[in-house]
Write a structure and sequence with these properties.
Helix content: 25-40%
Oligomer: single chain
Radius of gyration: 50 Å
Number of helices: 7
Mean pLDDT: 80
Largest sheet: 7 strands, antiparallel
Structural class: alpha+beta
Strand content: 15-25%
Order of helices and strands: HEHHHHHEEEEEHE
Distance between the termini: 149 Å
Length: 236
């Protein structure tokens, strides 16, 4: 087929355009690099911390319940009167000296004897006081710890207990001490509190010389008089 001059010029122009477009595409592709058919559009990741930490855990603590404290039984009227007397007259400024006097620096048994009278004990020929304000006129059993021990043992007014029998001690009982373990008694008081915490029994007492209302038996035999021994008289 014969083309005219104008047709040949048009075809040449069209081919040149196609070649130009193709060349442009090749240049663009060369600049961008070959397309990756596996690459897809991505969205930015949410911010993530640089490091991942374990959650903070509280250190376990000992939450075991404390041993329960057993409540003391209600006091009988005689024991309540005894304790009321002790708490009213244990301190030096409240000594009942007008009636019972005071034994200088060794008034413990004189005071304990007064408390037993308040409880309901009665005097006899061995254990007595004239109640005239002069404690030195009282009998030996009224003012001596060892004589008082012998009096109770002989009359059977109370039952002897050792410190290993604390589970039988009660408020209102008599406590005596042998500071040097010589066999006699060096101090006397009256039990004012018995606390049972689990398997532990703590006993407190009131007395004169050392004046006290709730003095610890354990303190008396470990701190005040290390190595001393406590004894009790269980009063019915």
């Amino acid at each position: 087929m014969q083309l005219t001059r104008w047709q040949r010029l048009g075809l040449t122009t069209a081919v040149g355009a196609v070649l130009a477009v193709g060349a442009t595409a090749l240049v663009v592709q060369a600049l961008e690099g070959p397309a990756d058919p596996t690459k897809t559009a991505q969205t930015p990741d949410a911010a993530t911390p640089a490091t991942t930490q374990e959650p903070v855990r509280a250190t376990p603590t000992d939450t075991a319940a404390a041993a329960p404290v057993e409540a003391e039984p209600a006091l009988s009227a005689p024991v309540a009167a005894q304790i009321d007397y002790l708490l009213a007259h244990w301190s030096l400024e409240n000594y009942n000296t007008a009636e019972w006097g005071v034994l200088g620096e060794n008034d413990c048994v004189n005071f304990a004897s007064q408390a037993m009278i308040a409880r309901g004990w009665t005097m006899d020929s061995v254990w007595s006081s004239p109640k005239n304000g002069n404690a030195y006129d009282a009998s030996a059993a009224w003012r001596s710890s060892t004589a008082f021990m012998n009096y109770i043992a002989q009359t059977g007014k109370a039952t002897a207990l050792t410190d290993q029998q604390r589970d039988q001690v009660k408020v209102g009982d008599i406590v005596q001490f042998d500071w040097d373990n010589s066999g006699d008694r060096d101090h006397t008081g009256i039990v004012t509190r018995v606390e049972k915490v689990g398997d532990t029994i703590e006993i407190s007492f009131a007395g004169h010389t050392l004046d006290s209302d709730f003095r610890s038996v354990d303190t008396a035999i470990t701190v005040d008089h290390p190595g001393g021994t406590a004894y009790y008289w269980s009063v019915p």
